[in-house]
Amino acid sequence: EKFDIVKKWGINTYKCTKQLISERFGRGSRTVDLELETQIELLRETKRKYECVLQLARALTNHFYSLVQTQHALGDAFADLSQKSPELQEEFGYNAETQKLLCKNGETLLGAVNFFVSSINTLVNKTMEDTLMTVKQYETARLEYDAYRTDLEELSMGPRDASTLCRLDAAQSQFQSHKDKYEKLRADVAIKLKFLEENKIKVMHKQLLLFHNAISAYFAGNQQQLEQTLKQFNIKLKTPGAEKPSWLEEQ
């Protein structure tokens, strides 16, 4: 049984390798679904661009986390000096309060940005990747389909003796099996691409609105609008002191 499995795998690998080399050197024909392959290439390009956005958003989170930590330390230093410098108590005091407020707003913004990063990460590395895994299966099935199609065509053009007819029947059966697999995966990919596009639009509409509203509110100094943005998207902040970089919990 193991020998048969290895033998079958070896024959399949040989046929597919032969087909692949033939295609690369322009000698073999290749089944092409132009519309589907255009959509697949667009998905790969979109994934690369979203990965760039994800990388930049993570960098922003890390830099801003460092800023908030610095503001927190600076506020503590001002508060300490306010108690120990009677002649500058008021000046150190209101600077300490300012840094404390900036730190609080910064933590709120970090919650929003972390939620944005988490959602984009899920979209890119789970949802898109799941579709691309099906695409890889489809591309393998396409190669196998063309390999067995070529094999059947070559046998069909040969002599029709008893031995060849037996091999022709086997080749026809294998071809039909790989054709069915190819067509099923092609349909699966088309459906997944359709649902992925719908899901991407839905997710990005929400996340881009969140990102814009949170960033705008923070840099406008609108604490109430910043907090309202987190409520709007059901984001809860963890208590400060949680490990870097996230204070958020998604409900």
UniProtKB/TrEMBL annotation:
InterPro entries linked: AH/BAR_dom_sf, AH_dom, Arfaptin_fam
Domain of life where this protein originates: Eukaryota
One of the GO biological process terms: regulation of Arp2/3 complex-mediated actin nucleation
Keywords for this protein: Coiled coil, Golgi apparatus, Membrane, Phosphoprotein
Pfam families to which the protein is assigned, alphabetical: Arfaptin
Boundaries of every AH domain copy: 31-231
GO molecular function: phosphatidylinositol-4-phosphate binding; protein domain specific binding
One annotated Gene Ontology cellular component of this protein: cytosol
SMART domains cross-referenced by the UniProt entry: Arfaptin (SM01015)
Compartment(s) where it occurs, according to its Swiss-Prot or TrEMBL record: Golgi apparatus membrane; Golgi apparatus, trans-Golgi network
Protein's UniProt keywords contain Phosphoprotein: yes
UniProt xrefs under SUPFAM superfamilies: BAR/IMD domain-like (SSF103657)
Keyword presence, Iron: no
Coiled-coil regions, chain positions: 168-199
PANTHER family to which the protein is assigned, alphabetical: ARFAPTIN-2 (PTHR12141:SF3), ARFAPTIN-RELATED (PTHR12141)
Full protein name: ARFP2 protein
Originating organism: Dromas ardeola
Lineage of the species this protein comes from: Eukaryota, Metazoa, Chordata, Craniata, Vertebrata
